[in-house]
Specification:
Blueprint: H1 29-37, E1 40-42, H2 55-60, H3 66-76, E2 91-93, H4 95-108, E3 113-120, E4 128-138, E5 143-147, H5 153-158, E6 173-175, H6 176-184, E7 193-195, E8 198-199, H7 201-215, E9 224-225, H8 238-249, H9 255-263, E10 272-275, E11 280-283
Helix pairs in contact: 1-4, 6-7, 6-8, 7-8
Length: 288
């Protein structure tokens, strides 16, 4: 198993000038997840902690790089990262930020890890919600393990979690390619894959592209739009997404093919993407 592509920080996952913050952290996936839960708060779950976010805090959810995220954490509170911040003092993000910070910390400890885009089945029965998790290589067990670093004790209770977030079953988090294939085979309803008012084939297809990009070191915001992403089921190139889904489902089978899949102009992240939440074009390299 060649885990080298997911061992070193690259691009948006690099801590950059803030790399020193990741030294001397408690070791291992579980301990690091606990550290992250004391640093970040999910933008849309904050009210359940009794936290009302202001405009500046909401803006933090649009930071793309781990360096920018860590800069925000350290600028607001200079204590070491293991010092848990009060919920109202935490950096704001979404599932993708929890996963990416977890990935950065694991890589800093020499553990291969990658952020995965897909759908969680453990939030509401019968629904698969847009979500990101960490996938790390467990050398002792010789397998990739899914971890939901966002699920602190509060959220485990809030969502009545019946799974172990430190070892999420593959049928409870579907990487985007598995979700697409399941629907193509008629084994799942594409409208069950959703977030807010977005659902269905086009939404799943867009996440397949996001997951391929993430596997190639380009972990974009969940609402960034580019390339072959289209909000219209009739305009999806289904044969093309079929091929990408196979790569998403089996990223270790053919590393060269995985790289080639990303090099397609319909998948590769361009210098400017469309932030669908803010309704504007943004340069990737200059927007956090």
């Amino acid at each position: 198993m060649n885990t080298q592509p997911w061992l070193k920080p690259v691009g948006l996952s690099s801590p950059g000038q803030r790399a020193g913050l990741l030294a001397d952290l408690p070791r291992g996936p579980a301990a690091l997840a606990e550290v992250i839960q004391g640093l970040l708060i999910h933008e849309h779950i904050a009210p359940t902690y009794g936290v009302r976010l202001d405009a500046n805090q909401h803006a933090q959810a649009h930071l793309r790089s781990i360096e920018a995220l860590l800069d925000g954490v350290a600028t607001h509170d200079a204590r070491p990262l293991p010092a848990a911040r009060a919920p109202c003092e935490r950096q704001v993000g979404v599932c993708r930020h929890f996963s990416m910070l977890h990935v950065a910390m694991l890589r800093a400890q020499g553990i291969p890890a990658r952020a995965r885009c897909g759908f969680g089945a453990y939030f509401e029965k019968g629904k698969f919600y847009d979500h990101w998790v960490t996938e790390y290589w467990n050398e002792a067990e010789r397998r990739w393990v899914l971890v939901d670093a966002q699920m602190d004790p509060h959220q485990r209770k809030l969502f009545h979690l019946a799974i172990d977030p430190l070892d999420v079953p593959r049928d409870q988090f579907l990487v985007a390619g598995d979700a697409w294939t399941l629907c193509r085979e008629g084994k799942a309803d594409p409208d069950a894959f959703r977030i807010l008012d977005m659902r269905g084939w086009w939404f799943i297809a867009s996440n397949v592209i996001r997951d391929i990009a993430a596997l190639n070191g380009h972990e974009m915001l969940p609402w960034d739009v580019w390339g072959a992403m289209v909000p219209d089921n009739d305009k999806i190139d289904r044969a093309f997404i079929d091929r990408l889904a196979e790569q998403s489902s089996h990223p270790d089978a053919d590393p060269a093919a995985l790289r080639a899949a990303y090099e397609d102009r319909r998948v590769a992240v361009p210098p400017i993407v469309f932030n669908n939440v803010l309704g504007r074009d943004e340069p990737v390299a200059q927007s956090g």
